[in-house]
Amino acid sequence: MRIMKRPNILLTGTPGVGKTTLGKELAQRTGLTYVNVGDLAQECQLFEGFDEEYQCPILDEDRVVDELEDRMGDGGVIIDYHGCDFFPERWFDIVFVLRTDNTNLYNRLESRGYTGKKLQDNVQCEIFQTIYEEAMEAYKEEIVHQLPSNTPEDLEGNLEQIVQWSEQWMKDNN
């Protein structure tokens, strides 16, 4: 029996834009496998140190890529991470950059306990479209899409759009 080929999707954007909420719900609706890179790094200890300034571990990007390589080759994976330029371009069929207005983002990050420089830098990252530009440089332009992520209605619309895209991709590629 032939295994149906399924797409790999990257959900990226500044911390707090809603990647995890979208990714988990998307996995439920599509049957794709959801991988939160932060959680994976924690489980497998894929760190190369600790950032004192931001009070967080420093991801070992090479070890993350090694850890995910086999899964990504099989397809059917949703990757959730706030960075995107270290993943191999060949891994993804589509890249979604979630975008949130600054007031929403500020409130979301503050409620997570972000303060000072960490809070300001993440909001600035969103203002300057840093992750979107990173995605545009790392992947083919035609597979990179921005999605608004401010309201429950945005979430529902994004889910519907990605589920439809996924279904069409499977028709076209099987």
Write the layout of secondary structure elements.
Elements (H helix, E strand, L loop, with lengths): L8 E4 L6 H12 L2 E4 H8 L2 E5 L4 E4 L1 H14 L2 E4 L13 E6 L2 H10 L4 H12 L2 H9 L5 E5 L3 H22 L1
Parallel strand pairs: 1-5, 1-6, 2-5, 6-7
Antiparallel strand pairs: 3-4
Structure description:
It catalyses: ATP + H2O = ADP + phosphate + H(+); AMP + ATP = 2 ADP. Its EC number is 2.7.4.3. One of its GO terms (cellular component) is cytoplasm. With 174 residues, this protein is of the alpha/beta class. It has a single domain, classed as Rossmann fold (3-Layer(aba) Sandwich), CATH 3.40.50.300. Helices cover 50% and strands 18% of the residues. It is built from 7 helices and 7 strands. It has helices at 19-30, 37-44, 61-74, 102-111, 116-127, 130-138, 152-173, and strands spanning 9-12, 33-36, 47-51, 56-59, 77-80, 94-99, 144-148. The strands form 2 sheets. Strands 2-5-1-6-7 form a 5-stranded parallel sheet, with helices on both faces. The protein has a two-stranded antiparallel sheet with strand order 3-4. β3 and β4 (56-59) form a beta hairpin. α4 packs antiparallel against α5. The longest helix is centred in the C-terminal third of the chain and has 22 residues, at 152-173. It is globular and about 50 Å long.
- Under CATH, the topology can be stated as Rossmann fold
> Mean of the pLDDT scores?
96
Number of strands: 7
Spatial order of the strands forming the largest sheet: 2-5-1-6-7
Radius of gyration: 16 Å
Strand content: 15-25%
Give start-end ranges of low-pLDDT stretches.
none
Number of domains: 1
CATH superfamily: P-loop containing nucleotide triphosphate hydrolases
Shape: globular
CATH architecture: 3-Layer(aba) Sandwich
